[in-house]
Structures are given as C-alpha cells and as structure tokens.
Design a protein that fits this description.
Oligomer: single chain
Number of strands: 4
Radius of gyration: 24 Å
Strand order of the largest sheet: 1-4-2-3
Strand content: 5-15%
Structural class: alpha+beta
Number of helices: 11
Shape: elongated
Length: 272
C-alpha cells in the first residue's frame, strides 16, 4: 500500500511548519454474500449451501488475518432502512487469524441476521438466518491485492492477474530473476512488480527500511537498485517510485533522481 513517508504542513506563504504527518492508503473491500432461496430439493433453489459456503469464506479470510469492519444485511427490504439498522449487532472490528473458530463466527453472524429487516408477523426469536449480507473487510498485508483475494476465496483469477503469486515465488526460488519472469509473461508490468515484492520478501527486506533520504541514497548508490526495488523495500509497494525519488532529491538536490543512473533501464543525456 502506498505511503507518503514523513511530510510537513506548510503555511500560506509556503514556509514549512515544524510538525510531521504521513499519508497512507488502506484497502477496503466489500464481499456481498448472496441469500439462500428455496429448499434443497426445489429445482429453483439457489445457494442451498449457504452455511457451508459462508463458513469456508470466513476460514479463508482468517488465513490471511483479515479484519471485518462491519457486516450488514443487504436485502432489498433492508436497504430501505437506515444504515445503523442494517448492521448486525456484533462487536466490530472482528480481527481474524488462523486461530479463529470459523464455525463459531459463522453461527454468530447467521444468528445476528434474524432480527434485521424481519417481517412484522415473524414469531419471537424467529427470522431468516440466510440473508444477503455485505461484509466490509480490510487487512494489513501489503501483498493481499484484489486479484489475490479473488483467487483465495473462489480459486479463480481475473483475466489480467497473470501468474499467481505462488507461481512467481516458485520461479524466484528456482533462480529465475524478476526480469526473466516479466519476459516470460509478455513483459507485463504486473508480474514484474509481484516478482519484486516476492524477491524482497525472500531477502527479508520487504518494507524493512524506514522511508528516509539516507536509506534511499544507500540503496540507490550503495546497491545500485532501481527505483521500484527501492520502493518495495521502504514502503512495501514497488509502485511508490515518486516518493523514493523525492526522498533522493531531498538528499542530493532537486533533479538528482533524474540524473541518477544504475546501468539499468532507459538512459537520458543528463544522467550520470
């Protein structure tokens, strides 16, 4: 996830204030789990395995330490209610981990559905526990992307996903370089960036360096790393090249990052 590194607010005249803040993005995804309708032997039944499917999804989310920020009933009737009246009465956020009891959590979720948007003529304690629900998630793992979550929950991958992260990691362990992996998959940037992330993890350097000018200069000049490789080591995101170049310029002078050349990539006339 991109992060700005240390920043300082500025007054209206452009002068810098001696105060520090950072900006980072937080991924939030909604998983809409559809309702069950009809009996198991009904030829028009849908989502007959509602409980089993929800339990499996919770177990898989637990395996990647996801965090449930909220769950609300998302039926057409419930959407007529105020948001606070649609949310399940559970203690959010729910921190998931491999130790989470997925069946126990599933029971809490299905039981909490019953009173939400319940018919007026429903019996006390009654109500449907297999409604359409919206689960809002986040996580701290920088490498857990939309495509990886799609593959985790359904075994499918988006058309643009390219090779799985596991395949790329295996190739790296076999001695294939990130550049060779990109070439193998049509020189697409996506597989190359994933390879840079996994390469840094194997080196135990993923998001391991503080985003400071000194660290960026050391990685650039001491190890001759490309900006993407530096970015993944100081932010956990190889796309954060603008940040690391700005830190390099802060240490070496305005425009220094453009003049810096490691012997890789395009070379311009004013590069050293």
């Amino acid at each position: 996830m991109p992060t700005s590194g240390p920043l300082h607010p500025r007054r209206g005249d452009g002068s810098e204030i001696d105060a520090t803040f950072e900006i980072s993005t937080v991924p939030v995804i909604d998983v809409v789990y559809h309702h069950k309708a009809g009996g198991r032997d009904d030829p028009r039944a849908v989502n007959a395995d509602y409980h089993e499917g929800l339990e499996l999804i919770l177990a898989k989310l637990s395996s990647v330490n996801a965090r449930i920020l909220g769950i609300s009933v998302d039926s057409s009737v419930a959407r007529e209610l105020d948001p606070v009246d649609r949310e399940l009465r559970l203690d959010f956020p729910i921190e998931l981990s491999p130790a989470t009891n997925a069946r126990g959590l599933r029971l809490q979720i299905t039981r909490a559905q019953k009173p939400v948007a319940r018919r007026a003529d429903a019996k006390p304690g009654g109500g449907n526990d297999q409604k359409r629900i919206r689960i809002t998630l986040t996580w701290d793992d920088h490498s857990l992307t939309y495509d990886r979550l799609l593959e985790l929950l359904s075994g499918a991958r988006s058309e643009a996903a390219g090779p799985s992260r596991e395949v790329i990691r295996t190739l790296l362990l076999d001695g294939t370089t990130a550049d060779q992996i990109a070439a193998r998959y049509g020189r697409r940037r996506g597989p190359w960036l994933v390879a840079l992330e996994e390469e840094a993890k194997l080196d135990r350097e993923f998001d391991a360096f503080a985003p400071t000018p000194e660290n960026v200069v050391a990685l650039r000049e001491g190890r001759l790393l490309r900006w993407e490789r530096i970015a993944v080591r100081v932010t956990g995101d190889p796309r954060s090249t603008l940040l690391v170049r700005r830190l390099y310029d802060e240490a070496k002078g305005q425009g220094a990052s453009r003049r810096s050349y490691t012997g890789r990539g395009r070379r311009f006339e004013d590069m050293n």
